[in-house]
Amino acid sequence: MTRSVHTQHFPEGLPVGDRWEPAPDTAEVRFPHDGAVVATAPVGDADLARRAVDEAVAVREQVGRLPSRVRRQALLATHDAVAARRTAFEELLVLETGKPLVDCRVEVDRTLLTLQTAAEEVARLHGETVPLDLLPSGDGLQGFWVRKPIGVVVGIAGFNYPLLLATHKIAPALAAGCPVVAKPAPQTPVATLWLVHLVREALAEAGGPRTAVQLVTGGPEVGAALTTDPRLGAVSFTGSAAVGHRIARDAAPTKVLLELGSNAALVVAADADLDAAADAVVRGGYYASGQACISVQRVVVVDPVRDAFLDRLAARMADVVVGDPRDERTRVSALIDRRSADRVQEWLAAAVAAGAEVVAGGEVDGAVVAPTVLLDVPDGLPAWDEEVFAPVVAVRSVPDLATAYDVVNASRYGLHASVFTASLEAAFEAIDRLEVGGVVVNEVPGFRSDVMPYGGVKDSGAGREGPRFAVEELTVTRMAVIRPTTRRG
Questions:
Q1: Do 169 and 282 lie in a common domain?
Q2: By the number of CB atoms within 10 A of the CB, which of 42, 99, 231, 303 ranks highest?
Q3: 3-state SS class at 281
């Protein structure tokens, strides 16, 4: 017999409609570190997904007309409820994701900020007047535009930051006045179920309908049922590029916001602070066990400082503690599952066979990938071209900074990149030239403040997150043109 180690904090079943409905199936959620059962989670199906969309459509008008104070109060109350339970959320996230405790603490901090700032955006939903009399036909007309909710939103989150990613779907949708149906990753549903329970209770206390926020778990058939309904206003997805592209095709013409993968680059210029750059590679390459879409994967160093940089990087590798994610010292632990580690092992072997050198790490033990540094991985191999999503960093040197920027851009991805330099000219050139959603100077490419516009270009996605920008994505402008009197002239 297996025993769950997570204490249930919410009702049984799935939050569909204004109640928790029995789920057609269940599945064990396991601790990636040792395989222990964390919880037995409900698993939905396509029928339940379609019902959730029906329920959301039924309350769309009601949710769209909720007073601003109700939406704001519900989000603030959810913030307070999560804050009061932060230690329990941190412990649950460690068990559910296998992510080190230090990273789970950051996830809860960022979740709280996202809830708070989404609540603040409720008061900033406004429009502007328009000078219609710029043409003679507009003489005597008054014009202004307002923002209206886009409609029902489906939010699908990834496994690596389940609480935070779900919050980035749910909180802006509620702030905008949109009912939302959330779908967590099958591996990590528990923290999101708890979050949705807290949001629904806060909504009811504030005077809104619980049905405004629902959740259905399950596999691809549930995702398909949720995303292909023509009554949706928008789909917001965080996950792999392959799945995101399929959702965009299948959901058309519904608006689709995509936060997809990347292979974030860090450029080291000749005038860089090499100690700071080496620290950034270690901090930015191995946090969350490398399972972050903007973790450092590619390091592009100019030739004059290649050897000095590699020496500094090698000296820091021993500081990366591998172990039990519940230990505060741990920085790298097991990946989400053994299949992911097996894939990484194949990619490492392919890189070595093609001439790359493993200068640190390279070992795979079960689901644990040792913090790894590869040197001179050729183009055309997944360890350089694709998203590793593991604690693996690949270093390459180039003749100059201009070539480094070309190498960064020679990727189908474009989420974040960073450059370490003492030159303002080089920094502004990077901001101008790098084809990414965010350029970070003298810091890790994984830096993200949850209030900034976050998103990528190319195969890294479309649309922007961050409460202010997500609310804009989930609302539409409605123009008002008024002639105060029927008399002309």
A1: no
A2: 99
A3: helix
Per-residue pLDDT tens digits for 430-454: 999 999 999 999 999 999 999 999 9
Residue 446: inside a domain: no
Q: Are 297 and 287 in contact (CB under 8 A)?
A: no
293 is catalytic: yes
Instruction: Specify whether 156 is located in the same domain as 255.
Output: yes
Per-residue pLDDT at 489: 58
Domain assignment of residue 194, yes or no: yes
Whether 178 is a known active-site residue: answer no
pLDDT digits (tens, 9 = 90+) for 339-363: 999 999 999 999 999 999 999 999 9
CATH code: domain of residue 107: 3.40.605.10
Split into its structural domains, the chain has a count of 2
Q: Which of 259, 387, 465, 473 is catalytic?
A: 259
Instruction: Please tell me the distance from the alpha carbon of residue 235 to that of residue 474, in angstroms, as a whole number.
Output: 9
Which domain, by its residues, includes 209? 14-260+456-478
Catalytic residue (one of 90, 104, 293, 473) = 293
**Residue 86 is inside which H or E element, if any?**
helix 86-97
Mean pLDDT value across residues 390-407: 98
Within 334-408, strands assigned E span: 357-360, 364-365, 368-369, 372-375, 392-398
Same domain? For 225 and 159 the reply is yes
Taking the model in full, what pTM does it have? 0.96
Which structure tokens are listed for 335?
């990946």
